[in-house]
Design goal:
The chain has nine helices and 14 strands. The chain folds into two domains: 35-123, K Homology domain, type 1 (Ribosomal Protein S8, Chain: A, domain 1, 2-Layer Sandwich), CATH 3.30.1370.10; 130-349, Cyclic phosphodiesterase (Cyclic Phosphodiesterase, Chain: A, Alpha-Beta Complex). Helix 2 crosses helix 4. With 356 residues, it is of the alpha+beta class. Residues 1-23 form the signal peptide. This is K Homology domain-containing protein. Residues 52-123 form the K Homology domain.
């Protein structure tokens, strides 16, 4: 009996070690890291003593819980069996704490590691819900952009794939710093707290001088100018400094220790998106050839590129304007505020408010 118990114990430890190794490999591959010690972890495994052992709780967004439950509850039962724990998950559509209980703390830790691995893997397959932006949709920029759009449609209408629907909407002009996946009100609150915590970082980089930029010239994202998906305006700081680049890199780095960041970049590519083929809408002719309807935007998988060679030649140094950057937003995708810009979830100023 003791030999059998020894093998059972060894099997459990090996299973725990394999999950740990898989989790480490996944974290390195995906760019996910644990929260630093001075920031609250979403998966803080503080154990509480109970009459039958211990328990801990994890906040796992409801949309991810179905992956933990699995088909007919098989995934949860397997984890419970292999780690000798009980896992309590809120009902479908209910946001709450997932509670893991068991006799031994190491068993609970093993179960939580598996839950975290499953939820992290499921999260990366979901689309981004928010993004960090610097709004540029001033009246002057909107007017300059509309003039550019009219000129391009007039001068480059014969270019393959050129269409009015692939232009950015003027009231949504912005710089994108990074994209975020926030899956519950709790995660939104955490992201807002993270953004607010960047105020000292912003002060250190921006200082007391306004951060002014100019948008001049156009460039494309991919390698072939005849098959472009994104055309953007080039961003230049008026004082020639790298403060904006430092700021963008610093803000993204601050979020890199969270599970929210969709993709981590060592160097943020500063750009103002002007045309994007994911905006493209397809007009479908009706049966009588007189009626038509506009289909929804296409996704990334079936996007149709355009030939930007002529645009790049004609507008290589095209000026769009200058402005002082005022705020950084966490913006919610697929929404609109009263001014038709994206709904602002949170914002931080780039300069300290002036006091009289």
């Amino acid at each position: 009996m003791s030999l059998q118990m020894g093998w059972t114990r060894l099997s459990f430890l090996l299973s725990h070690w394999v999950v740990y190794v898989k989790m480490s490999i996944y974290c390195q591959w995906s760019g996910y890291h644990d929260f630093p010690a001075d920031e609250p972890s979403e998966y803080d495994l503080s154990m509480e003593k109970t009459e039958k052992g211990f328990h801990t709780s994890m906040h796992i967004p409801s949309v991810l819980c179905k992956h933990i439950v699995g088909k007919k509850g098989e995934t949860r039962r397997r984890i419970e069996h292999e780690t000798k724990t009980q896992i309590s998950i809120p009902g479908p559509g209910i946001e709450g704490e997932t509670v893991v209980s068991g006799r031994e703390q190491e068993w609970i830790a093993s179960a939580c590691t598996r839950l975290e691995l499953i939820s992290s893997d499921a999260r990366k397959r979901l689309p981004a819900t928010h993004f960090m932006s610097v709004p540029l949709a001033t009246p002057a920029f909107q007017e300059a952009f509309c003039t550019f759009q009219r000129d391009v449609l007039s001068n480059c209408s014969e270019c393959r794939g050129m269409d009015s629907t692939i232009f950015q909407r003027p009231h949504r002009l912005h710089l994108t710093l990074c994209v975020l996946t926030l899956l519950s009100p709790h995660e939104v609150e955490q992201a807002v707290a993270h953004l607010n915590a960047t105020a000292p970082l912003i002060r250190d980089i921006v200082g007391d001088e306004p951060l002014s930029v100019s948008i001049c010239g156009v460039e494309y994202m991919n390698d072939d100018p005849a098959m472009v998906d994104i055309l953007y305006g080039k961003v230049h700081t008026k004082d020639g400094s790298d403060r904006l680049q430092q700021l963008a890199n610093g803000l993204v780095s601050h979020f890199s220790n969270t599970v929210f960041l969709k993709k981590d970049y060592e160097q943020v590519k500063l750009h103002l998106t002007l045309l994007n083929t994911t905006f493209r809408k397809k007009v479908v002719q009706g049966a009588d050839s007189k009626t038509s309807k506009v289909e929804e935007r296409r996704g990334f998988k079936d996007r149709e590129s355009f030939d930007a060679c002529k645009i790049l030649k004609l507008y290589a140094e095209h000026p769009f304007g200058e402005m002082v950057l005022n705020e950084v937003h966490i913006s919610e995708r697929h929404t609109a505020s009263a001014d038709k810009y994206y709904t602002c979830t949170a914002s931080v100023p780039l300069l300290e408010p002036q006091t009289e």
